[in-house]
Design goal:
By secondary structure, chain A is α+β, with helices and mostly antiparallel strands. Chain A is built from nine helices and 20 strands. Classes of the chains: A alpha+beta, B mainly alpha.
Chain lengths: ~450, ~280
């Protein structure tokens, strides 16, 4: 066997507690020194996951990761939020340094942790292609050679000399992805860049990814979308708690991931210090309530509520909660947003500025709607019905189970992600000599 | 893939970081594009555009001429005070601007730092180099002013690029320290305007260094900008003798600061993405 293109040996990454805080001032550092004893207590108290990733010496985002990847492998890295997927990608792309271990990469490495890194709103499309290309590691000659292909792929020919701040968000994303798609390294590290654009553009992007993968290049791909991983990848690396749980074929890794089951117990909550936030809003908890209790196991015959606790950090915001329901294989199932024209009934906070404080939004999913399986939720907050203020993937998972309410007759597999009860009507049309018009039938009904 | 493949080794860094400037050379195209972006974007959506590069030094020069030149009768080495002040103002602005920009550069480019790998040194270097464009514009104004006052530059003008290089290197040397500190301590951002103001009064911009006793002048060169500013006046206006000893001290100071800055920066850069 040839030398592996990527060899990782015992990679570990430790973050100091509080290192990911947004910034420090000298005063913070001083006050931290004084409060250190108390922080240790708090960290120990937080150590409820049983994984022991928090300790007095910091938080291990990755621990003892080893693997070999050979030329032409297309590897999907999967795992829950916080499993260490993105950290691993950051280490491999040299953005951050591992605390322990070492890795060797043979060949030119290109990493795409987001599309459009370094795009400047004041510069034109043409200028941004060159700038972004240089930032992600393309040579100028290469950019010039592929320039026309990029513009064509992005479908922005007539706007190429317009500042990108005047672009629609769709055009902006298309252009950004187009540059990235024409990066031609021997090793490509990709993080979730496919989660952009409308369905048809996503399809185009996926096509490009398949092309890259089949061209014999080595690709490492982090995704929440298991369907894409199943389609694209030859190998799967399942991470959990910062370690490798499974290193096998993509399909096996996905199966393992799904059967890991819900350990969320129907709720995810954060302390004030840990909670995901923007400068305007902080997500405090997400819970699923069914039959009057918080649970991660929901009967498909029962309705359930998804309850989102969030904190507005400034007065006068108009935030609307939004939920995405996702399925590990099929991807996005639906999104629902608490806006007057998009929800049932009326919410007293529709269109009203909110004071600073804690809010609880509740969304009811009907009974007899989902099929049995595993589902995830993304939480999004939209501000003034115009901007995406906050977006968090996979905050919570539930398993739905079948109590047999719809199985009085049929006992075998039930295809699909949703399983609503639909209206059915059958008519006898006689011996078939005089068939009435099909529209007439519905008129009778 | 028969071409010799480059092997990248990733691991925790130990001990004193190596300078590895070859890395920066490999990324020279990125450096070029970042400079180009900074220059291109700077005066977008401003009414007077690049005139800002001139407005600031010219108004400062006028204020100085009135208060220091006319009212306080500060000596100006036999040169009309406006030219005397402006010849110092031009390199000073280059330094002040480059220092400010480079000190804030890592923080203002954090979207790049957390998403893409490249030698981080490219960022403060680009900010410093972008300052040269403004310098070019105000330098032309300086030449115009000299014509107006009927002053012909001396032959020593050929040394000017060296002094420009010294000014830029000073800005980079200090900028490396401050930008790396700024990643961790945002206090730096608030310190810079204050620092620059103090530094200007410690530099012979509004007054000649000849008011400092001759014996002490090499010591004055510990402030590298004092050397640069005096060298500028000497090369352009032919004031007094060449500030040789002062310049030598300045150069030595800059080299030491630059080396220190480079090592410090290299040591800190491994954690930029985690702390910025």
């Amino acid at each position: 066997m040839s030398v592996p293109v990527i060899r990782a040996e015992g990679i570990g990454k430790r973050y100091q507690l509080g290192q990911q805080e947004r910034y420090h001032t000298l005063r913070d550092s001083l006050s931290r020194a004084f409060t250190l004893p108390f922080r240790r207590g708090a960290a120990a108290a937080r150590e409820t996951s049983g994984e022991g990733r928090h300790g007095a010496d910091g938080f291990w985002a990755l621990r003892d990761i080893s693997f070999d990847i050979h030329a032409g492998d297309v590897v999907g890295i999967i795992g829950r939020n916080g499993a260490g997927k993105s950290t691993l990608l950051k280490v491999l792309s040299r953005i951050t340094e591992p605390t322990t271990g070492r890795a060797e990469l043979r060949g030119r490495v290109g990493s795409l942790l987001e599309v459009g890194t370094g795009f400047h709103p004041e510069l034109t499309g043409r200028e941004n292609i060159f700038l972004n290309g240089a930032i992600i590691g393309m040579r100028r000659a290469e950019i010039m050679k592929t320039f026309d292909a990029i513009v064509e792929f992005a479908e922005v020919e007539s706007f190429i000399d317009t500042p990108v701040k005047r672009f629609s968000s769709g055009m902006y994303l298309r252009l950004a992805f187009a540059v990235a798609a024409h990066l031609n390294p021997e090793i490509l590290l990709v993080d979730e860049v496919l989660a952009v654009g409308d369905a048809s553009f996503q399809k185009k992007c996926l096509g490009k990814m398949t092309e890259v993968a089949s061209a014999g290049r080595t690709v490492i791909f982090v995704s929440h979308n298991l369907g894409v991983v199943a389609n694209l990848c030859t190998r799967g690396l399942l991470l959990g708690g910062g370690t490798v749980i499974a290193d096998c074929s993509a399909q096996e890794a996905i199966n393992k991931y799904i059967t890991l089951g819900s350990d969320d117990g129907g709720q995810t909550s954060w302390s004030e210090a840990d909670a995901p936030c923007t400068e305007n809003v902080r997500l405090r908890a997400v819970r699923v309530v069914s039959k009057g209790r918080v649970t991660g196991e929901v009967s498909i015959d029962e309705p359930f509520d998804v309850v989102v606790d969030f904190e507005t950090l400034k007065p006068g915001l108009e935030l609307s909660s939004c939920l995405h329901l996702t399925h590990p294989i099929s991807g996005d199932i639906l999104s629902t947003v608490n806006l007057p024209s998009a929800s049932l009934g009326r919410d007293e906070w529709h269109g009203r500025p909110q004071p600073k404080g804690l809010f609880r939004s509740r969304c009811t999913f009907p009974a007899n709607f989902l099929n049995e399986g595993r589902f995830g939720f993304n939480v999004v907050f939209i501000s003034r019905a115009a901007y995406i203020e906050f977006w968090r993937h996979d905050v919570l998972h539930i398993n739905t189970y079948d109590e047999g309410g719809m199985r009085k007759e049929w006992g075998q597999g039930w295809i699909g992600v949703v399983r609503p009860r639909m209206a059915w009507r059958t008519e006898f049309l006689g011996d078939g000599t005089a068939v009435p018009d099909v529209t007439a039938v519905s008129a009778i009904a | 893939m028969q071409s010799p493949t480059q092997v990248i080794t990733i691991g925790p860094s130990r001990g004193l970081a190596s300078l590895n400037l070859r890395d920066v050379v490999a990324y020279r195209e990125l450096l070029y594009f970042l400079v180009w972006r900074d220059v291109k974007v700077r005066y977008k959506q401003t009414a007077v555009g690049a005139a800002w590069a001139v407005l600031q030094p010219v108004t400062t020069m006028i204020v100085f001429s009135v208060f220091f030149g006319r009212l306080a009768k500060v000596p100006s080495d036999g040169v009309p005070y406006p030219v005397f002040a402006f010849a110092a103002m031009v390199p000073w602005q280059l330094f002040a601007f480059s220092l400010t920009e480079s000190s804030n550069s890592l923080v203002s480019n954090q979207n790049l730092i957390t998403k893409v790998y490249f030698p981080r040194l490219v960022i403060p270097m680009a900010s410093v180099l972008a300052g040269l464009v403004d310098f070019g514009i105000s330098f032309v104004v300086l030449l115009g002013l000299m014509v107006l006052f009927g002053i012909t530059p001396t032959v020593s003008i050929v040394f000017l690029p060296v002094f420009v290089l010294l000014a830029v290197t000073t800005a980079l040397a200090v900028g490396l320290w401050l930008s790396a500190l700024n990643v961790k301590y945002r206090d730096v951002r608030y310190t810079i305007p204050f620092l620059i103001q103090l530094w200007m009064f410690a530099t012979p911009v509004a007054y000649p260094s000849s008011i400092v006793p001759e014996a002490w002048r090499p010591l004055y060169g510990l402030n590298p900008m004092a050397g640069v500013v005096e060298a500028f006046r000497w090369a352009l206006l032919g004031t007094a003798a060449a500030p040789g000893p002062m310049l030598a001290v300045s150069t030595a100071v800059v080299v030491v600061m630059l080396l220190g800055g480079l090592f410090y920066f290299r040591r800190m850069e491994t954690t930029f993405a985690d702390t910025v």
